[in-house]
Amino acid sequence: MPVRGGHVAVPGPRGSGTARPAPEAGRTRTWVPGGPLDLGLVLGPLRRGPADPTFRAAPDGSVWRATRTPAGPGTLRVALRGGAAQAEAWGPGRDWLLDQLPSLLGAFDEPEAFEPRHRLVALTRHRRPGLRLTRTGLVMESLIPSILEQKVTTDEAYRAWRLLVRKYGEPAPGPVPGPMHVMPAARTWALVPSWEWHRAGVDNKRASAILRAVRVAARLEEGAGMAPEEARRRLEVVPGVGPWTSAETVQRSHGAADAVTVGDLHLPGIVGYALAGDRDADDAVMLSLLEPYAGQRHRAARLILLSGRTPPRRVPRMPRGDIGRL
């Protein structure tokens, strides 16, 4: 792994007799994937809305991520150049981020094991050969925003995540292309006052679930080294974390190809409509339709969503409720 970095001595204040370290340099790594790779498809699920303070897609095609690693905060920039993924990282977590780069970009995913059983799925897979399932190796950074997304519109959840991370997170290290923040540490989440949850539009049920989760953050983070189903069982011990939330978490933290999301407002109807013309499908129908993809049901659902074949809207959108304005 090519590495560069370090400090250089520059003159300190006049008469100080000391040297001041230069701004921290990044460290780099180049990794060549074993097949097609689409950064947007692979890393897109980690983005919580267009203004996510932890994620930025730059005009040059690079993707920036600010995250809290086991070694501390870190910022990662990844770009594809000539078939290779070129990465640079900053902060205390930079080495950890570079070590995890292949996992993040789907090196341990097995898209070749997927066998399409429907024409729509086969066509979408052919058109999207760069889809791989990311594996971040980090549980809490996916669990907390997933809890925020429970039973509310995505806009409301994205707003809450944005406001809380900007206020209680810390500036991302490195020469970021705009304001970016690392999400708060578990202890900081635990100290967020009740009125700030309210201002962010987070009801007591979701705030309480997050507070319970951060109290056992170390135990939950250990789940990154477990099989997805085992990690889900550990997550669901926390009151307020159910099958929907655990699936949404391990899809990102573990690259769990079979962790299909149940309990979702829209997914059963989308899968039912795409595969059987049934826009009123429920979870049971969805799971039945996805049964031929056992072991790869989440990937099948991703491909169905990417196909763009969704039922025409015939009911009002889910009402938006901003408790922060009450």
From TrEMBL:
Keywords: DNA damage, DNA repair
Keyword DNA damage: yes
Gene Ontology biological-process entries: base-excision repair, AP site formation; DNA alkylation repair
InterPro entries: Alkylbase_DNA_Glycosylase/TA (IPR051912), DNA_glycosylase (IPR011257)
Cellular component terms per the entry's GO annotation: cytoplasm; protein-DNA complex
Chain coiled-coil ranges: none
Disordered: annotated span: 1-28
Top-level division of the source organism's lineage: Bacteria
SUPFAM superfamilies linked to this entry: DNA-glycosylase (SSF48150)
GO molecular function: alkylated DNA binding; DNA-3-methyladenine glycosylase activity; DNA-7-methylguanine glycosylase activity
Key word DNA repair present: yes
Cited PANTHER family: DNA GLYCOSYLASE (PTHR43003:SF6), DNA-3-METHYLADENINE GLYCOSYLASE (PTHR43003)
Name of the protein in its database record: DNA-3-methyladenine glycosylase 2 family protein
Species this chain originates from: Streptomyces acidicola
